[in-house]
Amino acid sequence: MQTVDPRRRPPRELRPASALRSFPWPLGVSAVHDTAEHRAEPRSEHRAEHKGDQRDGAVNVAVFAPGVAALAVVHETADSGWVQTPLDAVEDGVHHGVVEDLPVGARYHLLDDQDPAGTLLLDPYARGLTEGEDGEPVAAVRVDGTFDWDGDAAPRTPWRDTVVYEAHVVGLTKLHPDVPEELRGTYAGLAHPAMLAHLTRLGVTAIELLPIHAHADEPHLAALGLTNYWGYNTLGFFAPHPGYATEASRAAGPQAVLDEVKGMIAALHEAGLEVILDVVYNHTAEGGKDQPARSWRGLGDRTYYRHSDPHTYEDTTGCGNSLDYSQPRVVQLALDSLRYWVEQCHVDGFRFDLAPTLCRDADNVFTNRHPFLVAAAADPVLAPVKLIAEPWDVGMGGWQTGNFPRGWADWNDGFRDVARTFWLSDQAALDAGRPGGSLAALGGALAGSASTFAESGRSPLASVNLVTAHDGFTLADLTTYDGKHNEANGEDNRDGSDNNRSWNHGVEGPTTGHRVLRARERTQRNLMATLLLSLGVPMITAGDEIGRTQHGNNNAYSQNTAISWVDWHLDERARRMLRATRRLIRVRREFLAHQPADYSRNPERQYLHWYGTAGYPMTEQEWTNPHVRVLQLLLGSPEGEIEGLLVINGSANSSHVTLPDVGFSRLPDDDLNGTAGEGEGEGFVLRLSTDPGTDQRKDERLTSDEVFTAPAQSITVFRRDREV
Questions:
Q1: Catalytic residue among 390, 410, 521, 545
Q2: 390 in active site
Q3: pLDDT at res. 136
């Protein structure tokens, strides 16, 4: 046994290989269990049942390292010494061996024995990582995956009923006054009753967390005194990021960090909320060729990464490298990681950053029959969970919205652009005396962008509708700024998109002008209503429900500051926005509860009828005329119990609208507080409006053919009970 310092190049003397037999599977570290004299087999440390007795501290280590001739493990022992153990067996690029003394909680590294620099590398399958402070390199840590889930059950919310809430663990909780200070900005803080109460009262059904995989900061950020706040720079696909854990868990080590993550998920499940992880399998934190090897590059650079030539990476991510998904072991790495998070951490779904990179073949061309997609669809662990693609990357042919296969949903950038154009760009044009756009694109968005997803055989439920996301302006900032204000990022405002389709309503930035503030609030409500009342699956960005601002920063990836954190001190404007969002979600849920289970999935079980201001079906000329900005949409199902009528006025003036002549219907007395008399319960009931004055008329009855005055730039929702 030779003691080594993990911060220095280890000596060449190696610990003798174990007499126990090792195996090339599973990859990573797994406990060794005796089955006979001098025989052993690896078993998952996360399963309750094992064959044979576990040898304390003895583990099977298997690493796919096709670029290495001889691989060793440099590791801590039970007495806190450091030793080097060779992985003597090699099969198909997998180096494996039994390490006799690697207890739970011990740190370890991998070492290419022929690397003259003695670079210590991370195990790609490490379940825990240290933070690498005080000059020490980041180390892998052996953890015990057992956890008392105490009957935890996945909510399994149907796609039809799903409302996604995109959030950052730190940003959502850092400033919440009802979360104890020591829990703010942590996994445990997200599990606090105050946060759970907000999410459940809001009415969302799933929280989509920005990356919680262990990640590293890009070198250029350190020089600016910044960090990678968003976390799209993965260092470990199986390990949670330790920086989001409480101080107590971080001090206790990776085992406590992992347990805190699991406790958060269990608490969210108990509240009825699904947990979706934003995952980054398209590139790694090793960056470009000029950056040092940290794991994959040192183990098999030519296999793990896609190359355009021996010295240049093919980069479809804009982050310096792209993992090569034409390689089976790279596909396996992603699938093994996904299964781990589902089976051992009870995660309910994933949103895949720059997903086309995972679906590029040997010629670097996207295919929706890629082995990764086929394997995910056929996998019994992954098939039941929610799989969401960010359907674009920066490579040739990278825009693939609508082209992912059945079983997947796509972030719908088309919906985003249409909603912003109708309520922001067009409104700015109207305010300047120019015509806006036509209604045609808006109609397609309200219908769940059905034509976008039809070719892939998917329904509008494959459309994850969004108006904002972590990347870009917040909802409030869309109505407050014409241009980005990213000076805090240290790049002279060059970073971030210039194509925001925003409108400041006549004043750039904050103002005390009541007219401008009222107009901004109205536009925010219209955007939120369009999002929540359209077919498809809506996604709200954390804080939009209370008018959160990033002060015009539309690329806050490096801002672990108040710029990115949700401010929970609510003024009256924030409370109004919160009430409006809650009501919109409630109306959406009410409508869906009265439709058949396959509503939105089966086009034969639903209808959308479009009417103009006169109450007659829309004509082609009305759809395409930019001067026509008023639309009525009646939606429901032949087997549904109620219908919804949306009256949308995107013009600068109020408009007299004749409600469509669809016959009469019965309205239940209890829906109108028992006030309906004979002959009075027929027609439409006003449920809400984004116009405050009209909204005060809630529960007012109108009949078919009655004239309703639709306020300028508003959405009004009516309910109609059907005779069934």
A1: 390
A2: yes
A3: 84
